[in-house]
Every structure is written in C-alpha cells, then in structure tokens.
Amino acid sequence: MISQSSIFICPICRGNLDMPADDLYVCATCRQVYPVINGIWDALPKISANLKYLNWYEEEGVADDKTGAAKLNAQRFKVPNVLTVLPECLTARTCLDVGCGGGWFLEEFLKRLPAPPLAGSPPIKHSFGIDISLPRLREARRILAGTTLIRGDVESIPLADDSIDLVIALDVIEHIEHPEMLLKEIRRLAPHLVIKFPIEDTFFERFRAKLQWLKRVIRNRPPLFNPHLHCFTVKKAYQLLGRAGFEVKNKLLIDLPFGETFMYPPAYGITEQTPLAQKMDFHIKRFIIKSLSQLAYLFLAPFFSRLCNCGLYVYAMRSKRSSTTK
Question: Range of 171's domain?
C-alpha cells in the first residue's frame, strides 16, 4: 500500500483522489480509476499512452537491460556525476527520479547520500520514481523497498505542487515529445533539479545517422526505431531550462574522449559473454572513434561539443520569475 495519498493527484484533471480500497485510487472529479498493482501505482491513463513508444519501452527497450549495462552505467558513472553537481549544503527530504527505469540509479544514489559531498545534509526521507515501463518498474520494486513507484506520463506527473524537494532526470528529456512541458512539470513540483542532456546535435551524430541510413537502404532494411525525439546542443539545453523557469547553478560536461568512460564497453552491452567477433568489431570501432575524437578535442577543444557527442549534467534551481508560456 502506498501511504503518500495526500500528495497524489489525477494526471488528467489534477483533481484530488479518493482511496476506496488499499489498492485503488479514484479521481473525485473525473472518476478515472488508478489501480495499485504489486506495490506500483498505475497512473498512466490508457487514453494518453502513445502505443508506438509504449510498446518499445515495454518490450525492445527492456531487452537491453539483461546485459546489465544500464545498471552499471547508472551506478558507476551517473551517481558520481550527480553528486558532483549537487551543492554540499543541499537540504532535500523528498526526491523524485523521473524516468527511473529499473531503479538502478536510485538504489546507489540513496546509499551514497550521507557520504561526502553531501555530508551534513539531512538524508532523504522518502523517494519516488516514475516511469512509463511496467517491466522496469517491477525490477525497481525488487530493489527499492521503501520507494513509491509510479507508472505514469512524465509530462503530467500525478503529484501535487511543491510536494518534492529534488527532482532528478537523467537521459530522459530526449525521449519526451514536449521537453519544455516536462521541465515546467518539474518546476511545479520542486525547487531543485539535476538533469542530464545528451549533447547529440553534433557533426558526428549527423554523420553516423546518414551512414546508418545508407547501410539500411543498401541492404533493403526498414529504418531503425529511434526513441530519441530531440537532439540538443549545450546552448539549446541552457535556453530550454531558462524558458521553463530554471536558473543554472552548476554544470558538468562529460564523455570527453579520454579515460575508460568514453564508449565504455559494458554500457554498450559488451561483456565477457559477448562473442569474440562482436567484441573485436566493437573495440576496432571504439579505437577509431576515440582516436578521431581525441584529435578533434586537442585541436578544436572550444568546439568539441558541436563536433562529438557528450553528456551535460546540470544542477538548476527554480527561478523566482514565472516560467514563460507559449
């Protein structure tokens, strides 16, 4: 049973929810019904589901999780990067992970919160995770016993205004149809935000996409499904945050072409069990791309984020002014 019913709202009409049973919520205004199934609140109205994307996140996207790459990437790299951009004096009693997936980030993040660089801050008393994928939420339920898990649309998060202290959204915004709507939802909920933008509006990404398209045309294959709906530059990321009513306080640009994090093999599903031919193919490509990226960085460092893909972590605070509306 989920005990935070006082801050839950209907994602359709924003009305208050009644709880006629331990495993059922009903909107007092529009009478939409939301069940709680195995400890997961299903707040995804059927009328709002984009079936094309929902099927991918429920099936194909989840298949990649079996390699363990998503968990390793979240815990080994994302957690330290988030802790780097967060201020040491941050006071956060509630936390929401937007696009929480299988809960891998939250599992490690909550363990490391009492440690530096957040020493002296009160621990988070309650954590929330929201995702569209029910299989991934089931995985999260197994490892996050004390976290409230919600299956829902992140463009209409079913939580009351100012009910969260800190929102974390990593590798999510590129998948969302209306990114500014997501950021305005987060601003409605919380004063603090840590977000990761994949910087993919680059020369490398455009070249790679055209090469993939050409290969599939030659082989007479249908185009690949691309769950990334948007590409960002660093400038576009800052502008989007500003329009949504956030002020950037700290930032970290990662995935520079040095060290093990660049095209880290497990993050691409390359493990000890991977067939030798596939491993050799990956490492040859990794060597070529890494070498070219290093040359680009050495000679064109100020323009690197326009040439090659990277990641941008941002800690932002809700600005005092109201966010603009189109």
Answer: 36-201+227-255+309-318
